[in-house]
Design a protein that fits this description.
Six copies of one chain form a homohexamer.
Chain A (H helix, E strand, L loop, with lengths): L17 H21 L1 H12 L4 H13 L6 H13 L2 H17 L6 H7 L1 H17 L3 H15 L2 E2 L4 E2 L4 E2 L6 E2 L4 E2 L4 E2 L4 E3 L11 E2 L4 E2 L4 E3 L3 E2 L4 E2 L4 E2 L8 E3 L4 E2 L13 H4 L15
Parallel strand pairs in A: 1-4, 2-5, 3-6, 4-7, 5-8, 6-9, 7-10, 8-11, 9-12, 10-13, 12-14
Antiparallel strand pairs in A: 14-15
Helix pairs in contact in A: 1-2, 3-4, 5-7, 7-8
Amino acid sequence: MPAGEYMNNTPHPTAGSNEEEAWLWAQIKAEARRDAEAEPALASYLYSTILSHSSLERSLSFHLGNKLCSSTLLSTLLYDMFLNTFSNDAALRAATVADLRAARFRDPACVSFAHCLLNYKGFLACQAHRVAHKLWTQCRQPLALALQSRISDVFAVDIHPAAKIGKGILFDHATGVVVGETAVIGNNVSILHHVTLGGTGKAGGDRHPKIGDGVLIGAGATILGNVKIGEGAKIGAGSVVLIDVPPQTTAVGNPARLVGGKDTPSKHEDVPGESMDHTSFISEWSDYII
Amino acid sequence: MPAGEYMNNTPHPTAGSNEEEAWLWAQIKAEARRDAEAEPALASYLYSTILSHSSLERSLSFHLGNKLCSSTLLSTLLYDMFLNTFSNDAALRAATVADLRAARFRDPACVSFAHCLLNYKGFLACQAHRVAHKLWTQCRQPLALALQSRISDVFAVDIHPAAKIGKGILFDHATGVVVGETAVIGNNVSILHHVTLGGTGKAGGDRHPKIGDGVLIGAGATILGNVKIGEGAKIGAGSVVLIDVPPQTTAVGNPARLVGGKDTPSKHEDVPGESMDHTSFISEWSDYII
Amino acid sequence: MPAGEYMNNTPHPTAGSNEEEAWLWAQIKAEARRDAEAEPALASYLYSTILSHSSLERSLSFHLGNKLCSSTLLSTLLYDMFLNTFSNDAALRAATVADLRAARFRDPACVSFAHCLLNYKGFLACQAHRVAHKLWTQCRQPLALALQSRISDVFAVDIHPAAKIGKGILFDHATGVVVGETAVIGNNVSILHHVTLGGTGKAGGDRHPKIGDGVLIGAGATILGNVKIGEGAKIGAGSVVLIDVPPQTTAVGNPARLVGGKDTPSKHEDVPGESMDHTSFISEWSDYII
Amino acid sequence: MPAGEYMNNTPHPTAGSNEEEAWLWAQIKAEARRDAEAEPALASYLYSTILSHSSLERSLSFHLGNKLCSSTLLSTLLYDMFLNTFSNDAALRAATVADLRAARFRDPACVSFAHCLLNYKGFLACQAHRVAHKLWTQCRQPLALALQSRISDVFAVDIHPAAKIGKGILFDHATGVVVGETAVIGNNVSILHHVTLGGTGKAGGDRHPKIGDGVLIGAGATILGNVKIGEGAKIGAGSVVLIDVPPQTTAVGNPARLVGGKDTPSKHEDVPGESMDHTSFISEWSDYII
Amino acid sequence: MPAGEYMNNTPHPTAGSNEEEAWLWAQIKAEARRDAEAEPALASYLYSTILSHSSLERSLSFHLGNKLCSSTLLSTLLYDMFLNTFSNDAALRAATVADLRAARFRDPACVSFAHCLLNYKGFLACQAHRVAHKLWTQCRQPLALALQSRISDVFAVDIHPAAKIGKGILFDHATGVVVGETAVIGNNVSILHHVTLGGTGKAGGDRHPKIGDGVLIGAGATILGNVKIGEGAKIGAGSVVLIDVPPQTTAVGNPARLVGGKDTPSKHEDVPGESMDHTSFISEWSDYII
Amino acid sequence: MPAGEYMNNTPHPTAGSNEEEAWLWAQIKAEARRDAEAEPALASYLYSTILSHSSLERSLSFHLGNKLCSSTLLSTLLYDMFLNTFSNDAALRAATVADLRAARFRDPACVSFAHCLLNYKGFLACQAHRVAHKLWTQCRQPLALALQSRISDVFAVDIHPAAKIGKGILFDHATGVVVGETAVIGNNVSILHHVTLGGTGKAGGDRHPKIGDGVLIGAGATILGNVKIGEGAKIGAGSVVLIDVPPQTTAVGNPARLVGGKDTPSKHEDVPGESMDHTSFISEWSDYII
């Protein structure tokens, strides 16, 4: 995306720096202001969710509180809980910023940061999970589990609050994503909808996948058990994976096989979680025939 | 369905004619009236959604406004937007009528037009998408995208507002359907739940499937990239398709193969999107063995 | 789970006995009381959903009424309907108890009965379906279908009210489950998310799968047509099954094959629906290679 | 009102008899059915509040639950509380019936029993008070006081739950009525809006008015202290009364004087609480001059 | 108010002309825009109620629909009813404009037309009554009475839908106003809170006051019976009036007397309903002594 | 009230001290905890409004936000506004504490501080006004006026945000209270329901009453114009006052007269706003005769 597309003129600060959060918030407000002017029917929505707030964490807490509330879990209670958590944890806020960047730059259908903040259920589910995870680590399990349940009802995204998720994550479309209790997801990972990082049965313990940095997992892929998906690996859409996948390789099919073969798998150079290349392996997938 | 099952006695007018909309609305009101009399507990619901309205577009706009509203996007605003759009676009209303017919005649579990109008989230998501698409073509992108987001939250159906969808469409069950920005769906297509018409990565441009008239896509099928599914083709449940599928053929499996083989695929005569025959290819699917 | 984990000290009564319901309700209240004391932010939620009620059926009816209501189907109406149905049908209540036990003992992420009662959308969708099914058998189809629609909107679980479901069922994660009109599910079955028990086309009649007792169906499996999945069979994640599967065998893949081969399939001894062993067949799955 | 105006044809049973409640409920349903047929826009409202219910107490409990609920006091909880109380107390139900008769026959603007049941805030506030009073006598003060508060917020009628109120009461218009803790109101009393039955200061004890049977209290009258308003007395609009009023006499003015003079007050024969004659004393009111 | 205070620069058109409605709407939008810019916390409210609408009747219908809705009378239904009525009756819209002018120019606490439109419950109750009255004259009594009930619940203003009300009316503060079935209110009348225009008993027929043009009725005044308050008369606060009051005179007290005496009452020249002079008669009120 | 009635055992700190707020909050929590234990049906309400909060200002902000919100003014926005204002202004919080004490010790029907905090609309309206007044002084008029409107809709209490109100105020019952823009109310004043502190016409400027410290104003009293009610004066119920009232005297009647006569009015020693003695003047009121 050329820099000229930004709504504000200050140069984009270093990723992860303190300035980036402020820069991004200014950008989001500028986008929302432009949209409110162009579309009066949406202006009320944009003011209540973005333009009336003084910071990204207030806007996000308001939006999540209103999205996830129910008749028995009031929006004011959730707003308070989200705002307290985001306000007191700079790492959480940095992860939010990185996730907004991930959606904005990896998904060609994402037209603005404000678009992602307001409309991407994968983004919103992930931020709410980050708060649930924080509560989990503070031994507030019942609240964390209630929050997981609301996220699953509202966004159809079911992430156990104990699951560890890195920064710069894109859950694209997101409907039907399931992530189990002992799963770990690295940084800069992209996960499409209907993806399962599931367990292996009724035994407890460490039983869910470990996803390395930069991995791309295609729509409908199912990865089961305490397996390791190496850094930069790519999992094809609809694949069923039950064994480790080496770094920088591509696994496809049900059951999944490595492109290039088990012993001499093709290695790619890019970071699929960022390049989002779903389909370039087709020519190499020898038995893919229609 | 024998004509005798209709609640009103006037003969069924020609499909697509001006009279058909009026005929269908009279039929829906008769069905709702019968149900309200038989079930007092549901009468309030039937009056508020159907029997108190003077036209199909008012009933549908009311129902969509109440289903898709949130605390920050009020039902009255949405109702107004839906009603204005449907009232001013006869083609939209004709598509709605064709979609109601599609559900009523293709899905054996659909017991009445009123049942579809009130209860089929695939039908409702599709009608809301038609309005979002209209907004998109009027350069009202932010509103169209907000509507897409609400449809995805409420119905778990995520259709980009730019996607073009024909008439006589059945989204059966519908949960988890994802349709990308540059996808095109022809007329008389039937699509089961969990179906993805997805893109190929982070590059923009024309990157989603083109689905021909009369196609049937089974549950959980994933079709990725700017590929062409020919008229009357059939995609088996759970298939992963990344290459063109010829007309009147059947693709199954992950990766998908043509039934009958790549070079001599079996050709069927029916229109699968209308006949809804999911499974007759089994005997031909040579390596399908349990 | 060691008995010592229970919150109340009376010994666990015989499953299915009259005493079990009372024992379980006492257990749930003790769990909720402990959580309310530990987490004031959740106490209001726990009192309104559990601690203010005098019986499990009142608590469940209240919770379902509030979850499934909409602006046109009020919570009080639904509460009344649920409470009347549960109060007058001891078999329904026994099934609820068995389902709570199933979640508690099969899912290692389930930390308490109260956790399941409040937060498991699969459990809640199943109980609401049981009521819809009862209404269906009482010739109250329009109400049953309206309820199905609400369950599908709110929980993304779409079970036709005519489908017959046994006791001791675990719908784990549950998002995207679809169960057709003539499907039958036995006792002690475990079904993961995205599972489809679908039909075969637009013809009516008996057209959906029959699932035997003790079956385990993995995430994303699609079973189509009037096929029989034998007692104790196991269906691998992502499988597409269109033909009968013998008892105590394992079917995997797309198209599904029997582990051990069509003619000499491996037979397991356990009850997979209860043991929840998803992945032990891997070593036997000869062509599973990464 | 001539009997011919009733919607049902069975003769009106004896007041207070067991049959009267059933007769009245049949009448109300007939009225609501007529209105629902004449006015589709109101049919949903009439079905949800009246026509979907099997008894007057269910209809009233539903209506009060929905009127008095708030985001922190849910309608289902209130519905349950109202229904339990009305179901278990025949005297309460008889008072409700008598109050409906009072409104129907004394207020010429009351066009039907259904009109009163649905729309008269004085009637609704009084029924809710009857339940609050029952709770008060059961030593459930906090709940009774919370209910008083909701009645005061929603209907602008503030009756302390300890106040004792007879049967056949008409609170006409009702806005601004205040009735204190130790007030007692007899049978067949009519009280207009803005009437205060107030106390005398900060001392506790018996400190509010006692209103005899058949009394009529005009709009804006203020009666303060433990004074006795005799049977059949009439209090003029805007009067301020701080001393006992003898039976069958009329007090008017600020400060109030007896019509006819203190020593030879005029005595009327009718029961003003039933005849509702507000103004016939004018000619006798010697110093009333314009 | 000097013209310079207006937000738009076009000259104020003739009262009652077609142009005035457009001029006023432009003025209201300009006021709302100024307030939205100055107060981001209120911008969402101002956009949803005013700035997103294309006409005064749409804004007013939206606002009334959202204010008067309940869980059993949905906002969309009310919005539709209000919009249809206002759109089809230019006289109603002219009365609304005259009422806005009345509040703006008579009440020194009214800072803008938008302030009145959004915040004055007397104004809103009066506009809703105008619609209820229209429904009443169309023989839609049940709907009109349901609307009266909602107005009384929400605004504590109880006006019978049959009452006839002129143009340019100010209900100031408005809490507790009661206007009976056969009351008539002329043009340019100002009525303070707690005012009753009441009936005389349980007999039907013409039984409520007739208020002439330009009358001012002070807070808490009670006028009972089919009496005539002459043009330009003034009724003092707290007065109780049961007999005709001649034009241009002032009645005060309980019972009310004419200032200047019954036979030689003082006559004023101004139009009290417009000048709002509540208290200038004090020096003439001979027995007013503290 | 004997100290033994308090729920907590620490001695009552000095009024207005920093410790008093903490002491009172501890007292309120103890009261709420006792009630929650005694009444499970109310526990959810008590936890959400009081027991889940860490301070009085959080509890009050939550309660006011939920009471005053509407579909166009969300509870989260109001909660934020209340919390910010109370948190940053110790004088506001001290006034809240003094008002709670006023209700608790002057009103014999007030059984606990929690009772007042949750259920007294006069108390809640006054606290919301204090915030509106603060916004007014910060030149945020549109927001202050919107808040005034919500208070008037919800509590039927209409206080202009510019009005100045002291500490230790009891608005008892409160329905129908109207306080104008330039009114001033001193400390330790008690005001009953239906009281008007009104203006004199359409001229702006200083035009409303000034109420001295310790004044008691009876139900339905109307005080109009820029008049001075001296310290410790008492205004009888239903009085209409248009001229100054000297300190420590009692004015009664319509028009109001001084008890004891204009030239030799009786003087009382107590502080009526605190002693709440409404009626002891009766024997002195020579022309009060029934």
